[in-house]
Structure formats: C-alpha cells, structure tokens
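debug: dumping io for the single-chain case to check the tokenizer round-trip. Nothing else runs in this session.
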Amino acid sequence: MTTQPTSGAIRGHNVEISVGGRRALVGWLSLPSDPIGVVAFAHGSGSGRFSPRNQFVAHALQENGLATLLVDLLEEDEAQDRRKVFDIELLAERLTAASRWLGRAPETRDLPLGYFGASTGAAAALVAAARNPEPVGAIVSRGGRPDLARDDLPAVAAPTLLIVGGNDEEVLELNREALALLRCPKALTVIPGATHLFPEPGALEEVARLAGDWFVRQLPPVHNANAIEQEAGPRFPTLDMDPEC
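debug: decoded output
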C-alpha cells in the first residue's frame, strides 16, 4: 500500500477491495482529519477513479470534511466491454462490495456513508441503496441515468439529490420522471446552461457545492465528532423538494 498526502490535512492511499474469486476493485481513499462521513463514488460509463470531474468533486467534498472513495467498479478489460459498462446490476454489486469494505475498514467503519453517482453510476448507486438500504445515508446524482434503476427507485430510502444541466434536455426529462418514482426525501436541481458533463464555466463548481451541502445536511451525525454546519442553500432553482418520505 502506498500512502501520500493530498492537500492540507487530507491524506490518501490506494486500496484493493475483494469482490470474490480473483477479482479486486482498485481505489483511492482520501481522509480529512476528523471526517464527518465517507462518500463512495460510482463512476459513469467508460470512467473510473481517474475521472477529472469526479476528482474535482471529491476534493470539494474533502474540504467539507468528508472522506471519499474513488474506486474502479470495472477492471480494465471489463471497461472495454459495453455490455458490462451498462450492466447496472453488476455495477451495483461492486458498489455494495466497496460499501461493505468501508464498513469494515478501521478508518471509515464508524462514518455515515453516502453515494455520489454520475451517468450510469448514478443508477448503480440507486440500485445498491434500494437493495441494501441500511448503510446508505444520502445520495447525489450528477447528470445521472436514474431511469436505468426505474424498478428500484420506490425502494430507495436515502435522501437523494438529482443534479442535471439545464441544456441536457433528454437526461433532464428522465430525471424528472425518476423523481416522481422516488418516495424518499428528494430534490431535483437544474443548473441553467449546463450540458451533460458540466464543462461550462462554474458549472462543475456548483455541482460540487450542491453535493457538499447535501451530504453535510443529510448524512447522520458521527458520534463524538466535530460536525460541520453549512447553511447556504443552492443558488440555482431546486425543483420538487419533498421534505419527508
């Protein structure tokens, strides 16, 4: 295992997570001092732990006091197989394995767990949360495909935030339909002018801010830990907020 500092008081190291047989998931765990929770990332189709967008969001979450796990849910050869890239069941199983690892690891076992999913990874996060609801405290989807988890959406219990670009019209409509199926505390936030990957100036920064706010507010508190309070609300319109399940 190699260990190196990231930024400030944040430290990180490589991890390997067994998923049965000879396969192991490879990831990077980052830990701020006195973390208030841990967020596991479920990457989108063809993406992995080196995704610059997810690394950007992960760094912002770390600045909010959240540990992050960036993990490759597919091995290199599997990532070339389009059938596995869109195999939501497989991705959800791998994410669940990563969550169980976090629940056993000494550094993270006492921390509340959140999921951050992008594209198809958002569907995997929702399926994993629906089928193994106990450990998951909050979910954020960035430009996600929750429609691919349609049958599992009513069983999701964790507070769920869907973030979509205003110019990502097809995905926005799919998220609106998914929002109606969710029965948990939920919100859909639209970032005006943003497209699917949020490359527009300030768009990804707003995704990171919204995600950080959501996890800080929604994850249950850590016993004997210094909680972080953030009262700033989203600057962009939030639609269809349901305060209760």
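debug: round-trip ok. The radius of gyration is 16 Å.
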